[in-house]
């Protein structure tokens, strides 16, 4: 992994995680993913290629959580 971001918040963190990864995208991705804490467990999504592939995946298979 080239860039790692962590957020602890009062609102859903998925949009902030995606925006933070977008700001790092110039580094060039071979894959991207996010993980959030939900009810004591971890939800994660990852996709190969550009960040847009992860964004598209999250439209059909979203994650929730306030920490990620």
Q: pLDDT under 50 segments (min length 5)?
A: none
Quick one: how many beta strands? 2
Q: Strand order, biggest sheet?
A: 1-2
Mean pLDDT: 86
**Roughly how much helix do the residues carry, as a percent range?**
25-40%
Gap from first CA to last CA? 16 Å
Main sheet overview: 2 strands, antiparallel
What share of residues are in beta strands?
Answer: 15-25%
Cα gyration radius (Å) = 11 Å
Instruction: Give the class from helix and strand content and strand pairing.
Output: alpha+beta
Write down the secondary-structure element order: HEEH
Count of DSSP-assigned helices: 2
Question: Could you outline the blueprint of secondary structure elements for this entry?
Answer:
Layout: H1 14-24, E1 31-38, E2 41-48, H2 51-60
Antiparallel strand pairs: 1-2
């Amino acid at each position: 992994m080239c860039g790692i971001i962590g957020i602890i918040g009062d609102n859903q963190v998925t949009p902030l995680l995606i925006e933070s990864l977008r700001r790092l995208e110039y580094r060039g991705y071979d894959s991207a993913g996010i993980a959030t804490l939900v009810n004591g467990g971890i939800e994660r999504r990852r996709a190969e290629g550009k960040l847009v592939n992860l964004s598209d995946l999250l439209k059909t298979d979203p994650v929730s959580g306030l920490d990620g």
